[in-house]
Structure to design on (198 residues):
């Protein structure tokens, strides 16, 4: 549910779902309200976009994925404020990996490797496949994120904590326990975030 929420638009469960990336970092950044700020009025609150069909006039492929990466990276950068995490679906990740086959490397000291993720690098940002089996990232989508300005904020008293006592399961030989979580995603600089689409 957490992964689903991180990629959501925040409208499921009667609006109690996490305000996810589909609400915060969108393909049409001049519409909508995020954190009480209307993006149609305030241009500083608009994320950056790159769409292969609109910006290049072609579909994404291994021969042009680097061009897309270069343009979106430049759009999301300001001095030392640069993207440090790139999340890709199966399609865009496949194009990116194909474009690197002759020069690819997997850094052994990456923070992502410490968390169990295999990540490639692009301009010092970790590039992670977040599709795969059971992935929740939208199809043909990539997120270029600057983690200095976008946050996953759990409530201090509901950060995956046990609730109540252990309970016996009625249909199996097991003891279960409820785990509680509450929180949301927030941002302080959407102009440093980007979304790539086909």
């Amino acid at each position: 549910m957490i992964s689903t929420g991180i990629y959501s638009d925040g409208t499921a469960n009667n609006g109690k779902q996490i305000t996810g990336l589909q609400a915060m970092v969108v393909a049409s950044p001049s519409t909508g309200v995020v954190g009480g700020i209307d993006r149609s009025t305030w241009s500083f609150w608009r994320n950056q976009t790159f769409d292969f069909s609109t910006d290049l006039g072609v579909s994404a492929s291994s021969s042009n994925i680097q061009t897309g990466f270069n343009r979106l990276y430049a759009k999301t950068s300001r001095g030392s404020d640069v993207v440090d995490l790139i999340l890709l679906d199966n399609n865009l990740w496949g194009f990116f990996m194909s474009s690197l086959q002759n020069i690819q490397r997997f850094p052994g000291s990456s923070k992502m490797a410490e968390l169990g993720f295999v990540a490639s690098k692009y301009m010092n940002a970790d590039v992670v496949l977040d599709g795969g089996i059971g992935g929740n990232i939208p199809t043909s989508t990539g997120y270029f994120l600057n983690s200095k300005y976008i946050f996953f904020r759990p409530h201090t008293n509901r950060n995956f904590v046990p609730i109540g006592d252990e309970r016996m399961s009625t249909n199996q030989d097991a003891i279960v326990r409820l785990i509680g979580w509450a929180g949301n995603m927030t941002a302080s600089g959407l102009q440093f975030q980007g979304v790539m689409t086909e």
In short: The mean pLDDT is 90. The chain has one domain: 2-197. Residues 35 and 132 are 31 Å apart (CA to CA).
